[in-house]
Amino acid sequence: MALNINDETYHAIRNNISLREEMAEYLGVKEMTIYQHAVRKSIVLLNINLINILMSHTGKTEKEIFDSV
């Protein structure tokens, strides 16, 4: 079963600068790069460490972040 980040979560990433900054710091990229990954729905954001940052920053569970296909 493949997991995809749901649209609500991509929206949260695009609209939360502090979240993008934290994710960018982990990857060693600029915050705008994370924004662009969210716009393109890039698989880069499926990195488990980024998901952990997302969960700690938003309080969402894995079930709330992913749509199962």
Strand content: 5-15%
Total count of strands: 2
Shape field? globular
The description of the largest β-sheet is: 2 strands, antiparallel
Low-confidence stretches: none
Q: What portion of residues is helical?
A: 55-70%
Rg measurement, Å: 11 Å
How do the helices and strands follow one another from N- to C-terminus?
Answer: EHHHHHE
- Average predicted confidence as pLDDT: 94
- Euclidean distance between termini CA atoms: 6 Å
Class by SSE composition: mainly alpha
Report strand order across the widest sheet.
1-2
Summed up, the helix count is 5
Quick take:
By secondary structure, the protein is mainly α. It has five helices and two strands, in the order βαααααβ. Helix 1 packs antiparallel against helix 3 and helix 2 packs across helix 3.
Q: Topology of this protein?
A:
Elements: E1 3-5, H1 7-14, H2 17-27, H3 31-40, H4 48-58, H5 62-65, E2 66-68
Helix pairs in contact: 1-3, 2-3, 2-4
Descriptive notes:
The chain has 5 helices and 2 strands. By secondary structure, it is mostly helical. The model has no long low-confidence stretch (mean pLDDT 94). Helix 1 packs antiparallel against helix 3 and helix 2 packs antiparallel against helix 4. The longest helix is centred in the N-terminal third of the chain and has 11 residues. A two-stranded antiparallel ribbon has the order 1-2.
Properties at a glance:
69 residues, two-stranded antiparallel sheet, 64% helix
